[in-house]
Amino acid sequence: MKILLRCDKPLLLLHGQVAVGPPKKKQLIVAIDGPSGAGKSTVGRALAKRLGYTYIDTGAMYRTVALMAKKRSVDREDETKLTLLASSLHIVLSRKTEELHVLCDGEDVTEAIRSPDISLLASDISKKQGVREALVQKQREMGEGGGVVLEGRDIGTVVFPNAEAKFYLDANPEERAKRRFEELAGKQANVELKETLEEVLKRDNNDMTRAISPLRKADDAVFIDSTRRSVEEVVEEMARVIKRRAAEEG
Ligand code: DC
Q1: Ligand 1 atom closest to the CA of 126, numbered from 1
Q2: Is residue 53 over pLDDT 70?
Q3: Structure pTM?
Q4: Range of the domain at 232
Q5: Atom 12, ligand 1: residue with shortest CA distance
Q6: pLDDT tens figures, 108-130
């Protein structure tokens, strides 16, 4: 007698038993790197939602360390104190409804970490090796199981060089400044487009020229220019690449 078993749910495996059911899809690590305002957050969030993956905004972690350094009057050049701070903070990226919330030692810092001065301070403190090591370790712990979309500056080059899918997202500086400006203008009254462009260019320069883990495209990353392209188009292109990679991985 032939017995056919169909099972859509994962089976509990007891020692010596054979699993029956559809093969489990491999949970990939997806890396998105690129300069500020390239659309990494919007696209990363939409992509994670589409794949049913967890979205990890690593820039929010550098921003949180910067905010806490400012609050506790830690000198931006004091690597020892900044490293201690980065290692000791309990940073949680949580999702309440559609919005990403950032908690630091239980305090909601979601809004506070987005101001222009914290953007520049985050870029400055991210040059420090000890700060990077502390945060990279946390990021690896969060992502190593797969099923994640991580966005930042060094994900494909340093944090997960073996990520199955890597993207480098870019757009022209004027468009990136415009996006940042629109994002900020909704929350803060006193922002100017010209100042936002200056901030974006300064951060590009900081992040691309620093000695440790500078922003650069990983050799095996797919380059996507998001200038004048919709979020849907970019997500669609990424999803196609990921599908191909997932098939190659088996
Ligand atoms: O992605 P963001 O703009 O929120 O990041 C803020 C700063 O943090 C950015 O200017 C550089 C730093 N950063 C980094 O060095 N490495 C990352 N993986 C993410 C951000």
Answers
A1: 15
A2: yes
A3: 0.90
A4: 26-245
A5: 123
A6: 999 999 998 999 999 999 999 99
